[in-house]
UniProtKB/TrEMBL annotation:
Its EC number is 3.1.1.61. The keyword Hydrolase applies. CDD domains: CheB. InterPro entries: CheB_C, Chemotax_prot-Glu_Me-esterase, Sig_transdc_resp-reg_Me-estase. One of its GO terms (biological process) is chemotaxis. The lineage of its organism: Bacteria, Bacillati, Actinomycetota, Actinomycetes, Pseudonocardiales. Residues 2-191 form the CheB-type methylesterase domain. This is protein-glutamate methylesterase. Keywords: Chemotaxis, Hydrolase. It comes from Amycolatopsis endophytica. PANTHER family: PROTEIN-GLUTAMATE METHYLESTERASE/PROTEIN-GLUTAMINE GLUTAMINASE (PTHR42872), PROTEIN-GLUTAMATE METHYLESTERASE_PROTEIN-GLUTAMINE GLUTAMINASE (PTHR42872:SF6). It comes from the Bacteria. It catalyses: [protein]-L-glutamate 5-O-methyl ester + H2O = L-glutamyl-[protein] + methanol + H(+).
Length: 346
């Protein structure tokens, strides 16, 4: 295929991302010969004010993405709540496919779809955010000859997403968010082969189809199983078996399509453990209070041995509740969303 320019820029951000995106948009040239697609983690309900914010911040026209719309150069499209923002056959796809790391829209879903659809014509940009959404997608872009850019972690309000990208991907440029646009203005004018010489892992195409919600559910399940191995871990969303998508065990999917990176899964499991401990504390305190009532009732009716037995149950539950309450308030380890990425890149 004849040479073509790098004409698609995909951007991902999470916590602290609005400020980074505002500075990024301000640095883009008005005549940028590429379309820009942006995912910022959003709550599922309501409307997003991000298009208006970015439209005021920079020279490009910013608007909410619409399903089926062709990509236009010098336009900036933002994800809408509760939908993945994807690219397929040169058009925008909005999908309610399975969540990734608990998010919809997800950065990895956008990056992966762009890599599969456009190959080396894609530039991926990772900005401020917690955990590691975007790292796997940025790796897919690089694997197909695209360009990888990360915000300077020292500038990011939340540095985990840029840090994780730098730890696991050969990033081409590391810059403050306000200076990324100048580099992109140069890179988009490069002419590259229209298709990558390296088609990339088959799992990327399978995951791109899952994100688009294409095909029969049983077919999707079989495709996941064909490119993965059972991990022995459970999906936090549906409690189904997670299958490992790589030998290192850094990425997982369940049979219905929920996707997790190892770090996001660890964080979610930690939250689940704390919730279970609070539920156990509530159950113990309820058992204690019920034992008090039953002991008093038995004593009132003259059943002193029964009353004593319930008093022992009360004491046991009260002791266990006290131990658990002390652990929850004073000893439960705190799992930081910033995790260990800064250590990896130090």
């Amino acid at each position: 295929m004849a040479g073509q320019p790098r004409d698609l820029i995909v951007v991902g951000a999470s916590a602290g991302g609005v400020e980074a995106l505002r500075e990024f948009a301000a640095g883009l040239p008005a005549d940028l010969p590429a379309a820009v697609l942006v995912v910022l983690h959003l709550p599922p309900g309501g409307a997003s004010a991000l298009p208006a914010i970015l439209d005021r911040a920079g020279p490009l026209h910013a608007l909410s993405a619409r399903d089926g719309e062709p990509l236009r150069r010098a336009h900036l499209y933002t994800a809408v709540p509760d939908h993945h923002l994807l690219v397929h056959d040169g058009r925008i796809v909005l999908s309610r496919g399975p969540t990734e790391n608990g998010y919809r829209p997800a950065v990895d879903a956008l990056f992966r779809s762009a890599a599969v659809d456009r190959g080396p014509r894609v530039i991926g940009v990772v900005l401020s955010g917690a955990l590691d959404d975007g790292t796997a997608g940025l790796a897919a872009i690089k694997a197909r000859g695209g360009v990888a850019v990360a915000q300077d972690p020292h500038e990011a309000i939340y540095r985990a997403m840029p840090d994780n990208a730098l730890a696991r991907v050969a990033v081409d440029h590391v810059l403050p968010s306000g200076k990324i646009g100048g580099v992109l203005a140069e890179r988009v004018r490069e002419v590259v082969d229209g298709e990558s010489n390296d088609p990339g892992p088959a799992v990327d195409e399978v995951e791109a189809r899952i994100a688009r919600s294409e095909g029969n559910a049983n077919v999707v399940s079989r495709e996941v199983f064909d490119v993965s191995q059972p991990s022995g871990l459970a999906c936090p969303d549906c409690h189904g078996v997670l299958h490992s998508l790589d030998e290192a065990g850094t990425r997982y999917r369940c049979r219905v399509g929920h996707a997790w990176t190892a770090k996001a899964l660890f964080y979610q499991q930690s939250l689940g453990i704390e919730q279970a401990l609070w539920a156990a504390l509530r159950a113990l305190e309820e058992k204690r209070d019920l034992a008090i009532r039953m002991s008093q009732d038995a004593d009132h009716r003259g059943f002193h041995l029964v009353s004593a037995r319930y008093e022992r149950h009360r004491a046991e539950a009260d002791h266990a509740a006290g131990v658990l309450r002390t652990f929850l308030f004073e000893e439960l380890p705190i799992v930081d969303e910033a995790d260990d990425a800064s250590d990896e890149t130090a």
